[in-house]
């Protein structure tokens, strides 16, 4: 078993088109939730995490034609992560995996075509087929980077990114590959999809406020985040910058309801991530057990969609896992910054968690001024919390999807 | 000076491949223009929509040059006129 570290980061989000811009926004609490451009007046909400002035000039004509905006976000983030880590210069191309999460791809390509079918009985453009493949983004990244290792797309709604990163982590840890580009991408801000979300009555009419007493829903967003994962041995051998180590990955299904979350599933996934982390420690001759990990978690990046139900259920799950320690574990939700980019959210949040561990600064819950006391959690508010550089941080990042599909990653800071 | 159909075909290809129409002539081959099999399917759709014709699936493989497309358009338009 290999130790696995994060050595490259890339992102396209409403709060930054690279990790440095994103981190500045996280530090300052500058939200990317703004009034939608060309907003459909029927919508009850105004704000979303839309990437302003997306620059696609770096993409080829073929990439622009054969991929949806959703895949373009994957291409741009993957390029950053690969360049950041000089990935393809240090790993054999057939020993690199590309595992991306995506809930729905091709919305921008499909919706106008479908509308014309039903209103004009029109024919449909042939490129609608490849552009709407859920796996289009993974294929585009493979072609772009000339990477030939295991490549696929995971689709588990709002947990897609965490599932993708977790599977890639297991593939690198097992030795199946030596490195991976892992993350997720989503571009759901299309006319029909926004109306459907409006009808679901889960979107905040203002802006999302995770864990707030007056929280009233989520805020939708588009975005992407891709991480380079590789073995600690290869990272150290070439003196690569290491942002954080991935220790464990856990997943579960609530087996309960297609939209309502259940604390049992989330708790089971958190415990599975900790158990998996303990296995990593044991197999790589590091001290620590499941129990010591339970006692050492000192940051939790929550799924925190800011719906009344999600945050309450997630809090209940945290209490179920950590018992009396639960109210003392620093927790934050960052969707008030970047919005809920559906499948990409958990990849963006894993990237933020990696940067938090790297900088020893725990992000605060932007958008929220007063935490709901009923949740009984140590919600980080108003400003980031600084931890001493020599204090190890062991973190969980939760992804709890519609349909009860849960994925949790356990990350640890690297001792300098 | 290319005829109207030739110019419109050239413009469709130029738009699809994001290249200048000035670089395209009837003698340009698909290979020279890096038009692959997916591009041919896409171009055929645009040509059909633009000229109101139907290009049979089994005839796509015989198209090699811009001139081939133009000839096919002429041919199919003439056939349509005869049949109407």
General description of the model:
Chain A is of the alpha/beta class and 416 residues long. Chain A is 38% helix and 19% strand. In chain A, helix 3 packs parallel to helix 7, helix 8 crosses helix 15 and helix 11 crosses helix 13. Helix content of chain B is 56%, strand content 0%. At the A-B interface, helix 2 of A face helix 2 of B.
Shape of chain B: globular
How would you sum up the major sheet of chain A?
A: 11 strands, mixed
How many runs of DSSP E, i.e. beta strands of chain A? 15
Label the overall shape of chain A.
globular
Instruction: Give the class of chain A from helix and strand content and strand pairing.
Output: alpha/beta
Radius of gyration of chain A: 20 Å
Oligomer: heterodimer
Question: How do you describe this structure in short?
Answer:
Chain A has 416 residues and is α/β, with parallel strands linked by helices.
List keywords for this structure.
heterodimer; A: 416 residues; alpha/beta; eleven-stranded mixed β-sheet; two-stranded antiparallel sheet; 15 strands; B: 84 residues; mainly alpha; 56% helix; globular
List the helices and strands and how they pair.
The complex is a heterodimer of chains A (416) and B (84).
Chain A lengths: L3 E9 L6 H10 L5 E2 L11 E2 L12 H6 L2 H17 L1 H4 L5 E6 L5 H14 L7 H4 L4 H10 L5 E4 L5 H15 L4 E8 L4 H10 L22 E9 H6 L6 E10 L9 H21 L6 H7 E5 L6 H15 L7 E3 L2 H4 L6 H15 L1 E2 L15 E2 L5 E2 L7 E7 L4 E8 L4
Parallel strand pairs in A: 4-5, 4-6, 9-10, 9-14, 10-12
Antiparallel strand pairs in A: 1-7, 1-8, 2-3, 6-7, 8-15, 11-13, 14-15
Chain B lengths: L3 H14 L19 H15 L14 H18 L1
Helix pairs in contact in B: 1-2, 1-3
């Amino acid at each position: 078993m290999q130790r696995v570290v994060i050595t490259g980061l890339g992102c396209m989000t409403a709060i930054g088109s690279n990790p440095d811009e994103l981190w500045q926004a996280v530090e300052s609490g500058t939200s990317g939730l703004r009034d939608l451009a060309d907003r459909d007046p029927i919508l009850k909400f105004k704000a979303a995490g839309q990437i302003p002035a997306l620059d696609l000039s770096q993409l080829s004509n073929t990439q622009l034609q054969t991929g949806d905006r959703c895949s373009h976000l994957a291409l741009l983030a993957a390029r950053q992560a690969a360049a950041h880590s000089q990935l393809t210069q240090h790993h054999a191309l057939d020993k690199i995996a590309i595992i991306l999460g995506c809930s729905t791809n091709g919305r921008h390509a499909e919706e106008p075509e479908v509308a014309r079918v039903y209103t004009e009985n029109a024919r449909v453009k042939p490129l609608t087929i490849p552009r709407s493949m859920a796996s289009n983004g993974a294929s585009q990244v493979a072609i772009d980077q000339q990477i030939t290792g295991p490549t696929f797309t995971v689709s588990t709604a709002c947990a897609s990114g965490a599932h993708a990163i977790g599977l890639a982590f297991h593939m690198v840890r097992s030795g199946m590959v030596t490195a991976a580009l892992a993350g997720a991408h989503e571009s759901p801000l299309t006319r029909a999809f926004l109306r459907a979300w409006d009808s679901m009555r889960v979107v905040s009419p203002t802006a999302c406020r995770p864990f707030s007493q007056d929280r009233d829903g989520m805020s939708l967003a588009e975005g992407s985040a891709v991480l380079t994962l590789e073995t600690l041995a290869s990272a150290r051998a070439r003196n690569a910058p290491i942002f954080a180590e991935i220790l464990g990955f856990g997943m579960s299904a609530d087996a309960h309801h297609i939209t309502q979350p259940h604390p049992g599933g989330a708790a089971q996934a958190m415990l599975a991530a900790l158990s998996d982390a303990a296995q990593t420690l044991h197999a790589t001759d590091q001290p620590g057990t499941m129990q010591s990990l339970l006692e050492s978690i000192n940051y939790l990046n929550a799924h925190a969609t800011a719906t009344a139900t999600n945050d309450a259920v997630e809090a209940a799950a945290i209490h179920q896992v950590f018992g009396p320690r639960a109210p003392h574990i620093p927790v934050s939700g960052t969707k008030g910054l970047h919005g809920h980019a559906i499948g990409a959210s958990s990849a963006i949040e894993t990237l933020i968690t990696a940067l938090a561990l790297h900088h020893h600064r725990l992000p605060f819950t932007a958008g929220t001024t007063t935490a709901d006391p009923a949740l009984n959690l140590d919600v980080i508010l108003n400003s980031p919390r600084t931890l001493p550089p020599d204090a190890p941080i062991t973190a969980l990042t939760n992804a709890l999807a519609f349909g009860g599909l849960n994925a949790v990653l356990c990350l640890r800071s690297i001792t300098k | 000076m290319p005829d109207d159909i030739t110019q419109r075909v050239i413009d469709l290809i130029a738009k699809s491949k994001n290249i200048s129409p000035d670089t395209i002539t009837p003698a340009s081959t698909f290979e020279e223009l890096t038009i692959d099999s997916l591009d041919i399917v896409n171009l055929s759709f645009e040509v059909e929509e633009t000229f109101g014709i139907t290009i049979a699936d089994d005839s796509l493989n015989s198209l090699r040059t811009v001139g081939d497309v133009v000839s096919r358009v002429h041919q199919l338009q003439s056939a349509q006129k005869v049949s109407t």
